[in-house]
Write the structure tokens for this entry.
Amino acid sequence: MHLKHRFHYYNLDYQINNSSFFAGPVNPANNRTTTRSVTTRPIDVTDTYATSIDLTGKFNVLGTQHQALAGFDYFWEKAESQGFAGNPAPAAYRPVVDIFNLVCYHAT
């Protein structure tokens, strides 16, 4: 008989900075521009527990060899997230992007 036990604990606690993406369809009036939107997930906390126990054995019965495996697996995860996705300001205050002439700029 052979007994094997594995245990795993994982804790994740982090923040993601804001990132912008193209939120919606291209403007149908000109088929060139779209308005940026933002997404953010400032808080993400995850705890994970996992365990696995295996019992293996070899034995003979009436002259025939056998190998058996019995086991137990357990997995538990708790995740808490807060976030936002959408248009945070009226379109007049969000940058309009020409998808055929992308220009990168950095705010100073």
